[in-house]
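INFO worker-7 received task bundle
INFO bundle size: 2
INFO processing item 0
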Amino acid sequence: MKRLMLFVVIACLAMAVIELYIAPKYLVKSICKLLLFLFIPYLYIRFVAHLSFKDLFSSKMKYMKLPIILASGVSIIILSLYWIIGSFFDFSNVTVMLEDTMAVDKNNFLFVAIYIALVNSLLEEFFFRGFAFLALLKMTKRWVAYLFSAGMFALYHIAMMTDWFSIYLFILILFSLFVAGYLFNKLDEKADSILPSWLVHISANVSINLIGMMLFGII
């Protein structure tokens, strides 16, 4: 259990260092994340935790009905909140930070948005729900697995969003990420699969990317 939790912390810290100090282009950062969030956890799940990799991606339809509803609701809520409260916050720094730190601009944002929605969301679900929750759940108490997975999911995004938003919006987003991580855990525990949370995560990312496209003036 301690080894698993330690690896999660180390992997998140490594990504924070990459985000804040190395600050490579998005492609290089994505390759680093692929190594830290997929291949090494896979080895642990396969040979130490002895979980079925296949089972993490399979779920009965009865467990997918609520995620489908939630995915639709999340998309509506995110876009509605942006349209309602967007004028009260300054989002102009988001595009500046993306261009300066990750070389993501108007010309390549569509490709990055597709990657974030499908591949990046899968990496995070495999790491934070498959590895840091479902695998951990078999080794410790439920509340420990819930709080650890949701907490690390929220804290991981701190380095990514540094200087993007005002402090008030930053705290709100951080709290929302923790709640989202906790709810994702609930969905996946029932299904014993990461598919439910992945579906909702994809929907949230698509909605956020649509906002990004608005900020870049693509749509």
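INFO item 0 finished
INFO processing item 1
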Amino acid sequence: MSTDGATDHEVVVVGGGNAGISLAARLVRRGVRDVALVEPRAVHHYRPLLNYVGAGLAGMAALERPTRSLVPAGCTLLPDRVTAVGPGDGGGPATVRTAGGRRLRATTLVLCPGLDEDWHATPGLAAAYADGWAASTFVGESAPRVWPALRDLTAGRVLFSVPPEPAPAGPPR
């Protein structure tokens, strides 16, 4: 820890999804000695399998793992939420602040924070999710509702959409 209370790291990776954990593992394998990974969620979801959950081919347990179990040896997991990032002063290390009061400095800062869905951006969508007649295989909390709804459908219409990037696990280009 430095004299100003900040913790210095060679690399700080913000986000412990597939991208953040994969990058941290690759850096450690390539010999980077001080990699810190900041991720608030205790449970990691392997998002590409959400489509299989929505199709009734897998359950949520197949894609959930404790985040800590996926962090490579030699990488420091910081279970916290990032609230601010900033460039270093005068070309110095980048800075990261967390909800838990941590201050981090990094020679290299990598941002892989993922996306937060904004159901209120589309009028009526939040209410549709809350009422249970809309679901998405892009959202872990919603994916288990898709297959039962499709399996039990006997009449009516179903709308499928493929969102453009930057959707999580969006379609290939």
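INFO item 1 finished
INFO post-check item 1: Strands lie at 7-14, 35-38, 43-45, 64-66, 75-78, 82-86, 94-98, 103-111.
INFO post-check item 1: Residues 32 and 146 are 42 Å apart (CA to CA).
INFO worker-7 idle
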